Amino acid sequence: MGANRRRIERELAAERRAREERERTERGIEALHARKLVDVWNSRAKRQARPSFYPTIETAIIACAPWLRFMCPSCQAVGEVDLSTLDRHPLTPISGLIPSLSCRWCCPDPQFAKLLALSETPFPPLAKRRAR
């Protein structure tokens, strides 16, 4: 192997390392922005303010908050879904899930589900019912 070939291989390896470092940094920045978006949406949902935007499924997953809690306004039934298990396009806003999350018990005319929060882990049960 000649000196030129070694030099070319070193340059290619250096370029590859630099590209991997840039990609790692971009992923970190992307995750930070996604986390901020989810935090803003969660704070507005907690205040019951009208949301100015809905994060996408991909944003929630990148922010490590794939658990979505929702509630039926009629019967107050609460449910949750893991967004990472859904077979939907990643750029679908979570508001696109509302019709499919609507209450099945309030038939024939269920109200649309109300989205409550995004979380990193499944939510703990609201309250344990006592046996009578």
Main features:
3-stranded antiparallel sheet; 41% helix; 132 residues; disordered C terminus
Describe the structure.
- The protein is α+β, with helices and mostly antiparallel strands.
- It has helices at residues 3-46, 57-62, 98-101; strands at 67-71, 78-82, 114-119.
- It has a three-stranded antiparallel β-sheet.
- The longest helix has 44 residues, at 3-46.
- The protein is elongated.
- Mean pLDDT is 82; it is low at 128-132.
Summarize the structure.
The protein has 132 residues and is an alpha+beta fold. The chain has helices at 3-46, 57-62, 98-101; strands at residues 67-71, 78-82, 114-119.
Give the helix/strand layout:
Layout: H1 3-46, H2 57-62, E1 67-71, E2 78-82, H3 98-101, E3 114-119
Antiparallel strand pairs: 1-2, 1-3
Structural class: alpha+beta
Work out the helicity level.
Answer: 40-55%
Can you write the helix and strand succession as a string? HHEEHE
Tell me, briefly, the overall form: elongated
Largest sheet: 3 strands, antiparallel
Number of helices: 3
| Rounded Rg | 22 Å
Mean pLDDT: 82
**Proportion of beta-strand residues:** 5-15%
Number of DSSP strand runs = 3
Spans of 5+ residues with little confidence (pLDDT < 50)? 128-132
Distance between the termini: 83 Å
Q: Kindly report the spatial arrangement of strands forming the biggest sheet.
A: 2-1-3
